[in-house]
Amino acid sequence: MPSFRDDYDFPMDMEDVDLMMNSSDYIPIPDQENVGTAYIRISLPELNVQKCLQFQLGESIWHAKQQILASFGADLRDGYNYGLYYPPQNGKAGKFLDEERLLREYPLTGPIGYLEFKFKRRVYRSMELNTRKLKQIHTKANLKQFMDAVKHANKEKVDKYVTKGLDPNYVDIDSGESPLTLSCTLSPEKCRSMIITLVSGGAHMDFRNRHGFTPIHKSALTSNSEAIKTLLDLGASPNYKDLRYLTPLYYAVTRDDPVCSEMLLNERAVIGTTDEQGWFEIHQACRSGKVQALEHLIYYGADMDVQNASGNTPLHVCAVTNQESCARVLLFRGANKVIVNLNNQTPYEAAIIAGNLELAEIIKGHSSAEIVPFREIPQYSNRRKLINYTANFRTLAKCRSETRLNLSMMDSRFFDPDGSFRQYSTSSDCYSVTNSDSPRSMSSSSIYSGPANNGGSGSSSNAHPHHHPHQRQKQSQHGKPCSRRRLYAALPNRVFICTKKFKPTEPGDLKLKKGDLVKVLHVGEHGYYEGRRETGEEGWFPCSTVEEINLNSRRRRACSVGDLDSDTEYFQRQTIKQHTSLNHMERSFVR
């Protein structure tokens, strides 16, 4: 791939040099310190101005866009829907650069590159442009009718408009939505075909509505897993940012459908996005009580002990909001329960002050001998670049469950000869406790190879006894092979009650009726659990058909409640004493 500044054998254009030297943003940097940077001439056709800016080649187009907005933003309206445009050249049509790709992935000609920064419009590639006809079709009446057609899922009418040349990249004045974000709110049966029609008609998948949400953000907010799948299939990035710099994953973990967060994580969604108060995705999942989303985050490497701006860990959040199930997941997977927040409170103390005595007892009574971190290696889609996974692995290595790796991820066994990352997870019948003295010693001896959508199962290899190819569940109750795939073992002793009857749709599914009690054994792909009924039958069922029932809350020891009451009085007195001391200090300072 050609470099921006190095390895060129022709003289620099003097006009570019003059523009660069006269630019207020030009800062001369020695050559040895200039590695990995480039000067690019940015043109704004709407304002008829140009600037030469210096960019880091390793940064994304999104970061370059923010740098440009900092220079021109005061003069731009709806700047979040502007993009870097690669002009037509060498017989190729121009295109807008994808915001989540790196700048170095786009080779530019000359020692100083040239890009345009303009509002994202439809790029007409194969149509014969007729400016007069395009103006005639882009009337307010036609744009309103187009939005109505999208709202009512009238695919034929939408296709007719885009065929005539209508640009679907605009924000409706009344609803504040773009056609593509509106299509993501349609029912799962209708949204896929509508999204494909709009994208085929020139809709940009990183175009934002009035609130700054991209289509994949809107899909996550509405828990539309089919829309997320369609956008990802079409090449959308799972890491687009909204106006608050938040990703779709940040919103997906607070919604009811865990399939959405699972899809995003499988496509290498970056973990570690924070809001203005320093809340991470894992904090939001705990506050919302989304146990399945929390487990997925930990499985994919989220830091269980990360602190927000107030110093609260996810366990602190569970303690204050009384999310017992989430707290059990964190404790079981190895969260640190002695970290203090800025108020010098541990999660146990925070639970007592909040009046959540039963949860405080659980935190206090949890022993390190009960910790069982994940041993399974997260599995990812093959269609995302390895560089994105590397960022995720850095996060994975920081989490407390990193002991599940057992060996360096940089070991050559984890990489194919062509440099692509192998896909690993536990096989269907291998997650078992060994005879080791430590409860952490769980068998991870069979790890599968292949992406989530690869069919079939491989056979064992003597060359790598610790890495058996992935197998799906052996057979269903009727002897037919099961197509469901396990991700990881579920927490022990979790009992669920069926709230919506379920009829098997594939071999290996478990028939459930309302009121059935089922024990979850494994968490699978696409929002499925593997469990066992009271009758001993085992099989798969959607997590949306059951709700967890907490049997442990009825088994509290009476003696411990008295201890908690005394602790409550003590911490309340300490809190009052601290506030009194602070108020006295403030009055003294004012005097």
% residues in beta strands: 5-15%
What's the β-strand tally? 11
CATH superfamily of the domain at 14-119: Phosphatidylinositol 3-kinase Catalytic Subunit, Chain A, domain 1
As a percent range, the share of helical residues equals 25-40%
Instruction: Specify the CATH class of the domain at 14-119.
Output: Alpha Beta
Q: How much is the radius of gyration in Å? A: 28 Å
The CATH architecture of the domain at 14-119 is: Roll
Give me the secondary-structure category: alpha+beta
Please tell me about this protein's structure.
By secondary structure, the protein is α+β, with helices and mostly antiparallel strands. Among the domains are: 14-119, Phosphatidylinositol 3-kinase Catalytic Subunit, Chain A, domain 1 (Ubiquitin-like (UB roll)); 485-555, SH3 Domains (SH3 type barrels), CATH 2.30.30; 556-590. 33% of the residues lie in helices and 10% in strands. It has helices at 14-22, 61-72, 131-137, 140-151, 155-164, 179-183, 188-200, 215-221, 225-233, 248-252, 258-266, 281-288, 291-299, 314-321, 324-333, 347-353, 357-365, 386-398, 558-590, and strands at 37-44, 49-56, 82-86, 95-96, 113-119, 486-489, 495-498, 517-524, 528-533, 538-542, 546-549. The strands form 2 sheets. Strands 6, 7, 8, 9, 10 and 11 form a 6-stranded antiparallel sheet that branches. It has a 5-stranded mixed sheet with strand order 2-1-5-3-4, sandwiched between helices. β8 (517-524) and β9 form a beta hairpin. The relative contact order is 0.05. Keywords: ANK repeat, SH3 domain.
